[in-house]
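User: Reviewer 2 asked us to show a designed sequence for the structure in our supplementary figure. I'm pasting the structure tokens here. Could you produce the per-position amino acids so we can include them in the response letter?
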């Protein structure tokens, strides 16, 4: 397969990348958003809220503007999401010491536990797919997706 791809023109290769991305994205999202996986989510917690928690886990704190940019949503959408999460005691707001107009959002310990439990459950769910992955292909996949993510993040 790699050899036949190497023989393609640049334009043909771009088409193949786009087709592969489109198909892969569709299949992964279908699996991630299917009813089996939604059952793993705690009552009243959305995938968008999980994405907020994952971002906060990686960055320790964020502003609402950062989260809106990350999730590609508008300010009013992220504000209502944040309000729901504060009410559920998943995140806290802390005013900046330097600039009172800035508020930082951080995860609560309750949210960290919830995220860890959910991650464990999702990992169990996907083990049947991941367990059969060839280690070399896994390394190639990780490298390729990280590279694509770095390109896409340039626009954020």
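Assistant: Here is a per-position design you can include in the supplement:
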């Amino acid at each position: 397969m790699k050899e036949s791809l190497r023989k393609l023109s640049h334009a043909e290769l771009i088409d193949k990348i786009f087709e592969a991305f489109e198909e892969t994205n569709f299949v992964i999202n279908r699996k991630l958003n299917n009813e089996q996986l939604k059952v793993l989510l705690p009552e009243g917690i959305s995938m968008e809220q999980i994405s907020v928690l994952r971002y906060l886990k990686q960055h320790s704190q964020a502003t609402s503007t950062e989260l809106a940019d990350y999730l590609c949503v508008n300010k009013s959408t992220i504000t209502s999401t944040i309000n729901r999460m504060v009410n559920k005691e998943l995140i806290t707001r802390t005013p900046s010491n330097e600039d009172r107009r800035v508020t930082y959002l951080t995860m609560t310990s309750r949210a960290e536990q919830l995220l860890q439990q959910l991650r464990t459950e999702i990992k169990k769910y996907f083990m049947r797919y991941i367990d059969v992955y060839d280690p070399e292909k896994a390394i190639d996949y990780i490298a390729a997706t990280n590279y694509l993510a770095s390109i896409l993040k340039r626009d954020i």
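For the response letter, you might also mention the following. Residues 5 and 13 are 7 Å apart (CA to CA). Residues 1-32 form one domain.
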